[in-house]
Predict the structure.
Amino acid sequence: MNDDSSERDLRQEQSLVDLEQVLGDRGQLLGDRDQARLDQDQVRLDAERGGEDGSEEPVAARMFDERQARLDRTQATEDAQQEALDHSQTGRDDHQVAIDEQRAVNDLPAAEQPEPADASKLQRDAGSRAAAARARAEAALVRAQAALVRAEAAEKRA
């Protein structure tokens, strides 16, 4: 592989990482907005509950309990989504480090370029790829768990 094609490949990889980062940032902003709304709902509910005169009517108590349960389910969903966002960010950070390392290797003078990989290097790289695949699978699991939490919350609301 010559330097031009290697640099072109790195630019393409960098573009993908940048796009993933923008999408991740957007998801984080949406999550922050939803969390702020959830916090405001909780404050309003607490204020309403605190404004009671002590004569708790069963209907009012049930209404507060239902609203609190809804807020708790929504919070659980937000927490699961935040965990998925955090996990995705870690993956993007790792990908960026790999791109930066490859650029550093490509920038070395020809005499300092690493030798072609031998069998042990290939085996180590295969292990690294397997670890990355496992991390992607774990991220998919977190996303699936978040979807389950959302589905359960929707089911409870219905």
User: Anything to note?
Assistant: The first helix runs from residue 3 to 50. Helices lie at 3-50, 58-106, 119-157.
